[in-house]
Write a structure and sequence with these properties.
Blueprint lengths: L2 H17 L2 H7 L5 H24 L7 H28 L3 H7 L3 H6 L2 H20 L3 H6 L4 H53 L6 H13 L21
Helix pairs in contact: 1-3, 1-10, 3-9, 4-5, 4-7, 4-9, 7-9
Length: 239
């Protein structure tokens, strides 16, 4: 979470701390102007959403390299095992085209990465399935090409797919959360701008003057600037 977002959170919490003091609640809650009470309630809800988005957005995006390596090796080993069965089955059936498609050593499987490895394994899964569904299904089973062995290959492919897509999905989600965070930060700060203006109406008594002074001071942890000479800076993405 970057400093700007953190400062916004600290500032808003200080605002609520001031508002929720028992001696201050009696001065503003459900008192004229009632819009202050309405805005305070909306600000509380919006702030809850904002802090939850900030928490999710600042979560570290990491892929478990060890998990990926493990799943990669398991897929390579399973694919190589089924591939050799398919090669031998196809060759005995005089289908050199199918045999040649997978007639390569384990080192070739090891060199494949990410989508290339997954696609080759999916192709093998499709071809092996065709053997179990065709006229030579009984013969294919003798080579270990069965619904069970193909299901194992599919599972390894699915597991590997999750490993290689998880970081990309997380980055995409973080981009969406960053946009949401910027929107909510503007909403919450705009609400407190309006509340600052409305709070002035509580002045006129020693208690009211003291409350307004303390309330406005609670929002000075960060400098936002108001008016055309000092526009509110955009909230950058969390680093």
């Amino acid at each position: 979470m970057n400093d700007i977002i953190n400062n916004i959170i600290v500032t808003i919490r200080a605002r609520f701390t001031c508002l929720e003091k028992s001696e201050n609640l009696t001065l503003w809650k459900d008192k004229a102007p009632l819009k202050f009470t309405e805005k305070a309630a909306l600000a509380e809800t919006t702030f809850g959403i904002f802090t939850e988005i900030a928490r999710k957005q600042s979560a570290v995006i990491t892929g478990n390299a060890q998990d990926k390596l493990r799943e990669e090796k398991e897929l390579e080993d399973e694919a190589y095992k089924i591939a050799r069965a398919v090669v031998n089955c196809a060759r005995d059936d005089k289908d050199e085209t199918l045999a040649a498609k997978y007639d390569f050593p384990i080192s070739s499987w090891r060199r494949l990465r990410n989508e290339a490895l997954l696609q080759r394994a999916r192709d093998l899964e499709t071809d092996a399935t065709a053997l179990t569904a065709g006229p030579h299904a009984i013969e294919a089973a003798k080579y270990g090409i069965t619904a069970t062995s193909i299901a194992k290959l599919k599972k390894e492919g699915d597991d590997y797919h999750r490993c290689i897509t998880a970081p990309r999905d997380a980055i995409s989600e973080r981009t969406i959360l960053t946009a949401d965070l910027q929107t909510k930060s503007r909403e919450i700060l705009d609400l407190f701008d309006q509340m600052d203006d409305l709070a002035l109406q509580f002045k006129g008594t020693p208690a009211g003057d003291s409350f307004v002074t303390a309330y406005l001071a609670s929002g000075l942890i960060i400098e936002r600037g108001r008016g055309p000479s000092a526009p509110t800076p955009p909230v950058p993405p969390v680093a």
